[in-house]
Amino acid sequence: xxxxxxxxxxxxxxxxxxxxAYWDAVKQHKLVLQHCHACDLYLHPPRPMCPSCxxxxxxxxxxxxxxxxxxxxxxxxxxxxxxPAFKLPYAVVLVELEEGVRLTGNTxxxxxxxxxxxxxxxxxxxxxxxxxxxxxxKKRDG
Amino acid sequence: xxxxKEKTAIVGIGVVPFSTDIGRTEWYTACQAVKLAVDDAxxxxxxxxxxxKNVDDGPDQxxxxxxLGMDNLTYTAESHWGTSPxxxxxxxxASGSVNYAVYYQTAHRASGPEKxxxxxxxxxxxxxxxxxxxxxDFYTPFGLIGQPGYVxxxxxxxxxxxxxxxxxxxxxxxxxxxxxxxxxxxxFFDKSITIQDYINSKVVVDPIRELDCAPKVDGSIAIIxxxxxxxxxxxxxxxIIMAATQGxxxxxxxxxxxxxxxxxxxxxxxFVADELYRVAGIGAKDVKxxxxxxxxxxxxxxxxEALGFCDRGEGAAFCEGGDRIRNGGxxxxxxxxxxxxxxxxxxxxxxxxxxxxxxxxxxxxxxxDMVLSVSGAGGPADGxxxxxx
Amino acid sequence: MTVEYNAEQKIPYPALWHVLYRSSTPFWDGVKEDxxxxxxxxxCGSFLNPPRPMCPKCxxxxQEWVPxxxxxxxxxxxxxQESPHPAFKAPYSAVLIELEEGVRIVSNMxxxxxxxxQIGMPVQVTFEKVAEDxxxxxxxxxx
Lengths: 142, 389, 143
Known about the structure:
The structure holds three protein chains of three kinds. Helix content of chain A is 6%, strand content 39%. Chain A has one helix and eight strands; from the N terminus they run αββββββββ. Chain B has a domain at 8-122 and 218-226: Peroxisomal Thiolase, Chain A, domain 1, CATH 3.40.47. Chain B contains 15 helices and eleven strands. The longest helix of chain B is centred in the N-terminal third of the chain and has 16 residues, at 26-41. β5 (203-206) of chain B pairs antiparallel with β4 of chain C.
């Protein structure tokens, strides 16, 4: 699981019009995914146009179950490569959601050594401060 | 082999309407412009295999490719100045590297960085004012800051050497405003201005007036280049590229090439002119319409001289009264309203050149079978000549 | 007119402190001692301005710094009606001086009103301490 070093700010998400709805939902502890209703295609990260049909007005936001499996992961073990706001060691996981898209995130109450590809996880939310909410992943029963 | 002579054509143009606040991200409007251009050409998106852009404008090729779901790109490139990425596109197509190269220029310069995918605008301005070390070392400590001041130093000398009056300098802005007033796409003039409006215009940095300086704008444009052979199966008759080139010269410094023997001519544009006419096999007199770089209108007379439309020192007199440079005159200029009317956006000149060749300009010039477009007055220059099929 | 500065604002300093750009250091070191120095190619004798690592005429990388006479003529100028930087009080003029050696430098005039400026007027260098740690080479009309 990730723990933070006090006093060092975490770099904030860069929020613009293309991903605003995504981060607004996260703020309300909900995960939404961009979806093209013409192609029935989930898109992540959020973008201005459907890469399949090139339409800009077919994009909508659909709630996600937030459930998936760990697709891959890295463990940060030395401070040479890690950002100092995070206490070592910590893991960053790539989670394949049930909808098929992949999200990066941290873990909650999982020791880096216990992570394995295929581990069933689900999303949870954490209010970092007044105007930043992030998400991380915890173990769930497969 | 003449790589730049009649090998390629512009077959698609996409223009997201200009605005002072376009209300979308640069990623969004970049995708929009490329899609419009591909549709205009009647092309399948998957066949685009080259993407080129200006270094300082965003977003980069991977974003555009991701946004539009393009397949493999065999050629990507970035170039610095003016519309010089066109040279990348033409080179890639003419050399056989790609079949369909798209030059996209997307920059929201008016509404600010908050609508960009990253802080491009800040990067642009940092680069301009701080990272040009000669400028930071020898100009800024003396308060010579900002492009109107840089250009003003050259223009004062030009007006001195050739006895040019401020009134003579006003006719390019006047004619641009007339053209813009008739072009619904141009955002800056609902109605044209008079020469008196120009004279009354606020002096920003003497001798430069407010109406000499093209305003910032949000824009997004895409232009598709392909071979003459490929062009046959597409929607529009091609705008054939008769010739294209870049020009640079020694002791160059953006808008401040003050160390040359004379600072009142544009050797870069002179190189562009000589090469374009040589490759195309035509002369200045054959050009029916010209899109010149009016980012700063007082640099237009020097371009007219460099491009051979008049003798040295006579550029301002050539424009006086406006009749020679209006539609119907000897050389209609900046028929879409120029940078003054549309905002400072270099690739808009190429779009207007294509429209003149197609016959779809808001200020269509009769028999516009050969059209010139150049960029880069007061720095590295580039240009092309288009013709009808 | 002499350029007036806002005391509470920092004048944009020359870039010589930039770690990547050392070519102009001797120029600004000279200014500190009230000397106007020009870079000159040791091989072909050309004056090099702005300073640079290589002579563009003969590609020699051997240069020396020689004192300029400090005399020249006004080549061009602009007058700022609005200030582009908080340190400078508008109106003020920036001038381009052609030195006797043939090179041109950007500077300011002292004790001359903008309306008195004339292209070709003879000028000579003078040094003005504009901040505790910054001297700038400026120009005055030649008597």
